[in-house]
Design a protein that fits this description.
- The chain is of the alpha/beta class.
- The protein has a single domain, classed as 3-Layer(aba) Sandwich (Rossmann fold).
- It is built from 5 helices and 4 strands; from the N terminus they run H-H-E-H-E-H-E-H-E.
- The protein has a 4-stranded parallel sheet with strand order 3-2-1-4, sandwiched between helices.
- The longest helix is centred in the C-terminal third of the chain and has 14 residues, at about 90-100.
- It comes from Aegilops tauschii subsp. strangulata (Goatgrass).
- This is Tropinone reductase I.
- Keywords: NADP, Oxidoreductase.
- InterPro entries: NAD(P)-bd_dom_sf, SDR_fam, TR.
Length: about 130
């Protein structure tokens, strides 16, 4: 048995029974920022796989559209929008989109979007 089968309570060859019984997110809504790649994408897919309706955003429209197509083929309930969460107006528009899509109900928020800066957090003053 795989690790996910063990934690979800499934038997060999039966991934969904345990997941649906113990980890169901049917009826739940989720927003995952930065969901077009990496950890964010994995979170989107897991939440949707457990039955949640998920909205995700990314700055990269092309990546986001490719993900949307794949999720649609897999019949996952995921909607998408382009958003740069570092811009206040874009965040406000994102929240309005989510509010309308989920009729004001948001159960899960994953603030995953971020940018790695390759610089020290502190610079020692030179004497």
């Amino acid at each position: 048995r795989s690790y996910i089968q063990v934690i979800a309570g499934g038997q060999e060859g039966d991934m969904t029974t345990g997941r649906e019984k113990r980890w169901s997110l049917a009826g739940a809504t989720a927003l995952v920022t930065g969901g077009s790649k990496g950890i964010g994408r994995a979170i989107v897919e897991e939440l949707a796989g457990f039955g949640a309706r998920v909205h995700t955003c990314s700055r990269n429209a092309a990546e986001l559209e490719e993900c949307r197509r794949q999720w649609e083929e897999e019949e996952l309930s995921v909607t998408v929008s382009v958003c740069d969460v570092s811009v206040r107006a874009a965040r406000e528009k994102l929240m309005e989109t989510v509010r309308e899509s989920f009729h004001g109900k948001l159960d899960i928020l994953v603030n995953n979007a971020g940018q790695l800066r390759n610089e020290p957090t502190y610079k020692e003053p030179r004497h």
